[in-house]
């Protein structure tokens, strides 16, 4: 029997999105797979937790291993395609991350974050410390 997954919602078969503690979910899945290497549900949950934590390459790698070892697993090909799509999406600019808000943020929270970022001073290049030596003018010969 596999150990209980700390951030795993048994009814939806996914890591619990409210907790967002994917590192514990990943470590729990690793322990479950160590105890029973054929435990596909733990492998799938680990792949989902890796993806949700932002490691889409790891999620794709895990899902492809599942597809190789048990191709009869229902929906695995679709999950691999979805993870590859999410990897492409993650390579794009994430404006929510730039603004420093959650993707579920309300319109007012987005406006506040935008205004806060708009008034913040822009980074300026560092000033060079004044050197004691003055540049020598070139003499015409």
Description:
With 141 residues, this protein is mostly helical. It has a domain at 8-92: Alpha Horseshoe (Serine Threonine Protein Phosphatase 5, Tetratricopeptide repeat). The protein has helices at 22-35, 40-52, 56-69, 76-91, 95-99, 107-119; strands at 8-9, 14-15. A two-stranded antiparallel ribbon has the order 1-2. Helix 1 (22-35) runs antiparallel to helix 2, helix 2 packs antiparallel against helix 3 and helix 3 (56-69) runs antiparallel to helix 4 (76-91). It is elongated, with a radius of gyration of 25 Å. The N and C termini lie far apart (90 Å).
Global mean pLDDT: 81
Shape: elongated
**Span between termini:** 90 Å
**Strand order across the largest sheet:** 1-2
Main sheet?
2 strands, antiparallel
The beta-strand count equals 2
Low-pLDDT residue spans: 1-8
Q: What is the assigned CATH homologous superfamily of the domain at 8-92?
A: Tetratricopeptide repeat domain
**Beta-strand residue percentage:** under 5%
SSE pattern:
EEHHHHHH
Just name the CATH architecture of the domain at 8-92. Alpha Horseshoe
Q: How much helix, percentage-wise, in residues?
A: 40-55%
By helix and strand content, what is the structural category? mainly alpha
Number of helices: 6
Reported by name, the CATH topology of the domain at 8-92 is Serine Threonine Protein Phosphatase 5, Tetratricopeptide repeat
Radius of gyration: 25 Å
CATH class of the domain at 8-92: Mainly Alpha
């Amino acid at each position: 029997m596999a150990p209980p997954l700390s951030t795993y919602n048994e009814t939806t078969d996914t890591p619990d999105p409210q907790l967002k503690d994917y590192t514990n979910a990943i470590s729990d899945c690793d322990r479950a797979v160590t105890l029973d290497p054929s435990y596909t549900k733990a492998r799938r949950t680990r792949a989902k937790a890796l993806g949700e934590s932002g490691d889409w390459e790891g999620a794709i790698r895990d899902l492809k291993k599942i597809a190789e070892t048990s191709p009869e697993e229902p929906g695995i090909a679709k999950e691999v395609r979805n993870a590859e799509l999410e990897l492409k999406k993650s390579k794009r600019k994430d404006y929510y991350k730039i603004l420093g808000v959650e993707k579920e943020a309300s319109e007012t929270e987005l406006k506040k974050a935008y205004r806060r970022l708009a008034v913040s001073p822009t980074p300026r290049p560092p000033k060079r410390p004044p050197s004691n030596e003055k540049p020598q003018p070139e003499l015409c010969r």
